[in-house]
């Protein structure tokens, strides 16, 4: 989820330092603004956070880690939007009565960006990696299912609408759309398999946590394949497929784990095979 | 330089990944059974479960309800095991009333035989056979003297007809048909309180399912909460003012109470010190509500203002306790916690330092005090279990214990995050098919160390049963100067934990009475050893439960009480000193 804005850094560099803009705003700030709005509206309307200090802890740790690690590895002051989003995402997605999981999740997310790399590319979405790791290794202190914002149709519509527009402007809507379609298809299949109603299988995607997953996490430009839009759609289809398998195995955190599994495999294929093929063609 | 940096970052990454494993290894609290002698030596008491040997052979059963919801029946018919303590015949010994919920099942009323045993006399008194499809089944019961004749009357709240039984001098109970209580509502909490200080006990009722639903004859299956944490489609709340002629007037709207959250527990006490009883309601699928009483004329909901109205959870219980012996009441609200899936955590709402009166604010200190994670928590009560001078907590838990290795958690988590059109319709909920949901859970006994920390000792003090607990009540059942604990289990036996004390600590008890009114709502503050502890007489507190009427204070090793202050519901105050310890003092309101 953390790096949706980092996509914008590439054209910026290519264009000689000119920042790409969306609606006249530096595009790097679009995602942070959106997620901040979601957080504040959710908190003011429904009190979605356990407490502000826990979320602020995650944000502060992410930003500090980004600054320190960037200096250590790259030797320059980083743009902090990505770290901010990682922090705020951890603050929303992780639910815990303790403080340390928020700090640890943020620290792992940022550190993973600098460690888990192949040919200078991320393998995992940092927040997905950290959240999955925390859910898997620290279930005694961490959960993800808990607070929703309201199950309210209007709140949901606003987030869906805003998210869709922004994702469309950032050129990633095809990923979101593919995932949603695949999820619905697999819901139908799961319903036939389990005997549970179709609506029961569809239920999770109507929840707010999925909105964050769909709009921010699976669309992360740094951790999705780059060879073509078609390949991105195939990858996200396989994320939905892996999730469906995990759901049949009654894995509660299926979406996180599905992306955790499929994401790096797809990236490795992209790095070593697909991009290697398409780059010479593009050059030609 | 950059290579060194990369190596350091890699090492740091590995270290971060190791943190959860290290914490799990070193932060896990070992709870294990120990010998009674060791428990007595270490904690000053030990529990012995004596239900059956004491003659309490009660077994709770759940209703069957409409076949349309049979696929998730254990989820819906998951309540009704209630317990309330009273001294119905004024013999100075506590008796136990237990509610049942199966169609045609019998409630039980165990009279204290004063010899360590109990006898069920509910049938003889006419308060046993009251669970019928036509009139509904019991969810709980609370005792209060509504007509000030000196004998406790019985209010049974049901999924069905709310029923008030008048005590005929403790010899028989007769239903008060003219009471004007709801002919049909799905009530899950009720308390007695005198909100207007007129000397007559009034009644608060909290609805769970909508009152227009007859769960045996459903029109459709759209009966579930519209949201897991923001639901407002539950039953309404009622406040009935006692008119003094065996009838009650519905003043809910008049006093400004308007809520359709799914109420599961209520408690009343003067929290802001203005002399009038305030009201706290713990709601399932939503935030809790706190109503400040404005002069006995109206209630103002101040949940958001005071801080208890944020972070919606699954409120199952509320109990009042003076956690730090500073003369102020905290509220303990139980919620749901399941490793890796749902960590709502219980709430310990403590008054924020420097706030009081109308500006009172609360902070959740459950995590800091170590009483946050209690599984799928239900009833809990404060009480000084080892007489060390600090209020401890007994908490029961567990939702559905069925097939031990088959869990419903995945399906539960799947449907409860869904949109209200999905979660709200029982037809969309996957069938339970004999699976468990948060079943077989270990109960919690948290001992208050007096310095801001509670330590869990349940297994060590002999609480090892893992039935699906619901209601908890504390009482000195054998007049020994210790608090025993009664636990009502859903589809399980009633348990009586007899408190075996080391006898090293002192205590004092107060049994208040008033000629023309009930002492419910009275507050007693005991000052000793440079500290003061306040307790309030409740007309029902916790999940479907009611503690003994008398108030019990542990004093630790101190053998002297400096002073005692009693604030009666009427506003009258009584202060006295030089009072004997290790005994129960019967104090009438007009005592000089």
Outline the structure in words:
With 284 residues, chain A is mostly helical. Chain A is built from twelve helices and four strands, in the order H-E-E-H-H-H-H-E-E-H-H-H-H-H-H-H. Chain A has a two-stranded antiparallel sheet with strand order 1-2. The longest helix of chain A has 30 residues, at 254-283. Chain A starts with 5 loop residues before the first helix and ends with a helix. Chain B contains nine helices and 40 strands. In chain B, a hairpin with a 5-residue loop joins strand 28 and strand 29. The longest helix of chain B has 26 residues, at 2-27. The mean pLDDT of chain B is 96. The chains are: A mainly alpha (284), B mainly beta (592). At the A-B interface, helix 3, helix 5, helix 6 and helix 9 of A face helix 1, strand 21, helix 8 and helix 9 of B.
Quick tags:
heterodimer; A: 284 residues; mainly alpha; two-stranded antiparallel ribbon; globular; disordered N terminus; B: 592 residues; mainly beta; eight-stranded antiparallel sheet; 40 strands; 35% strand
């Amino acid at each position: 989820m953390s790096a949706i804005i980092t996509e914008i850094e590439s054209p910026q560099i290519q264009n000689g330092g000119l920042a790409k803009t969306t609606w006249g705003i530096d595009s790097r700030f679009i995602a942070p603004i959106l997620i901040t709005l979601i957080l504040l509206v959710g908190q003011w309307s429904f009190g979605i956070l356990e407490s502000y200090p826990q979320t602020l802890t995650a944000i502060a740790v992410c930003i500090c880690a980004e600054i320190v690690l960037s200096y250590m590895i790259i030797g320059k002051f980083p743009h902090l939007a990505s770290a901010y989003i990682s922090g705020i995402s951890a603050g929303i997605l992780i639910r815990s009565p303790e403080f340390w999981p928020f700090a640890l999740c943020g620290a792992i997310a940022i550190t993973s960006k600098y460690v888990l790399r192949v040919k200078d590319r991320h393998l995992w979405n940092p927040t997905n990696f950290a959240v999955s790791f925390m859910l898997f290794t620290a279930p005694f202190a961490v959960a993800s299912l808990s607070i929703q914002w309201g199950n309210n149709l209007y709140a949901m519509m606003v987030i869906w609408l805003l998210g869709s527009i922004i994702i469309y402007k950032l050129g990633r809507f095809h990923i979101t759309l593919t995932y949603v379609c695949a999820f619905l298809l697999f819901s139908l299949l799961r319903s036939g398999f389990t005997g549970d109603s179709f609506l029961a299988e569809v239920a999770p995607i109507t929840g707010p946590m999925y909105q964050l997953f769909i709009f921010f996490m699976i669309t992360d430009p740094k951790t999705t394949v780059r060879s073509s839009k078609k390949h991105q759609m195939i990858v996200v289809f396989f994320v939905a497929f892996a999730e469906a398998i995990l759901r049949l195995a009654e894995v509660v955190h299926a979406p996180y784990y599905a992306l955790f599994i499929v994401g790096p495999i797809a990236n490795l294929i992209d790095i070593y095979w697909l991009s290697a093929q398409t780059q010479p063609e593009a050059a030609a | 330089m950059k290579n060194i940096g990369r190596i350091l970052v890699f090492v740091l990454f590995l270290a971060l990944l190791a943190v959860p494993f290290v914490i799990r290894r070193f932060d896990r609290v070992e709870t294990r059974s120990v010998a009674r002698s060791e428990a007595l030596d270490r904690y000053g008491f030990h529990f012995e479960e004596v239900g059956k040997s004491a003659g309490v052979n009660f077994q709770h059963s759940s209703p069957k309800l409409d076949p349309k919801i049979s696929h998730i029946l254990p989820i819906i018919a998951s309540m009704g095991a209630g317990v309330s303590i009273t001294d119905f015949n004024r013999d100075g010994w506590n008796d136990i009333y237990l509610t049942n919920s199966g169609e045609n099942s019998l409630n039980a009323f165990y009279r204290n035989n004063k010899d360590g045993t109990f006898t069920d006399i509910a049938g003889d008194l006419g308060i046993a056979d009251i669970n019928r499809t036509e009139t509904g089944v019991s969810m709980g019961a609370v005792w209060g003297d509504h007509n000030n004749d000196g004998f406790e009357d019985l209010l049974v709240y049901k999924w069905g007809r709310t029923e008030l039984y008048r005590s005929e001098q403790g010899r028989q109970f007769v239903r008060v048909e003219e009471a004007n209580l709801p002919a049909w509502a799905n009530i899950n909490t009720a308390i007695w309180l005198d909100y207007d200080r007129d000397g007559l006990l009034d009644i608060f009722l909290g609805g769970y399912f909508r009152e227009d639903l007859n769960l045996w004859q459903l029109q459709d299956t759209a009966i579930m909460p519209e949201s897991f944490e923001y639901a407002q489609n539950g039953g309404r709340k009622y406040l009935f003012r006692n008119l003094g002629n065996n009838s009650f007037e519905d003043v809910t709207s008049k006093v400004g109470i308007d809520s359709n959250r799914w109420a599961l527990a209520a408690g009343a006490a003067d929290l802001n010190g203005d002399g009038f009883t305030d009201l706290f309601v713990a709601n399932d699928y939503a935030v809790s509500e706190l109503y400040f009483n404005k002069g006995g004329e109206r209630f103002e909901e101040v949940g958001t203002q005071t801080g208890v109205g944020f972070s919606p959870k699954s409120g199952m219980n509320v109990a009042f306790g003076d956690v730090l012996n500073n003369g102020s009441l905290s509220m303990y609200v139980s919620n749901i916690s399941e490793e890796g899936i749902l960590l709502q955590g219980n709430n310990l709402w403590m008054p924020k330092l420097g706030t009081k009166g109308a500006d009172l604010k609360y902070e959740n200190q459950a995590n800091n005090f170590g009483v946050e994670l209690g599984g799928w928590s239900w009833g809990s009560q404060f009480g000084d279990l080892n007489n060390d001078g600090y209020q401890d907590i007994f908490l029961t838990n567990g939702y559905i214990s069925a097939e031990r290795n088959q869990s419903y958690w995945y399906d539960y988590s799947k449907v409860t995050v869904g949109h209200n059109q999905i979660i709200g319709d029982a037809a969309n909920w996957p069938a339970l098919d004999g699976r468990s949901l948060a079943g077989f859970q270990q109960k919690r006994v948290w001992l208050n160390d007096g310095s801001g920390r509670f330590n869990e000792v349940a297994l060590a003090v002999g609480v090892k049963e893992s039935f699906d607990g619901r209601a908890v009540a504390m009482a000195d059942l054998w007049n020994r100067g210790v608090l025993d604990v009664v636990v009502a289990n859903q589809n399980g036996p009633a348990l009586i934990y007899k408190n075996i004390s080391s006898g090293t600590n002192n205590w004092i008890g107060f049994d208040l009475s008033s000629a023309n009114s009930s002492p419910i709502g009275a507050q007693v503050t005991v000052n000793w050893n440079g500290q003061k502890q306040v307790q309030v007489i409740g007309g029902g507190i916790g999940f479907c439960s009611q503690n003994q009427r008398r108030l019990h204070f542990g004093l630790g090793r101190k053998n002297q009480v400096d002073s005692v202050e009693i604030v009666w519901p009427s506003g009258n105050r009584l202060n006295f000193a030089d009072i004997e310890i290790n005994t129960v003092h019967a104090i009438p309101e007009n005592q000089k």
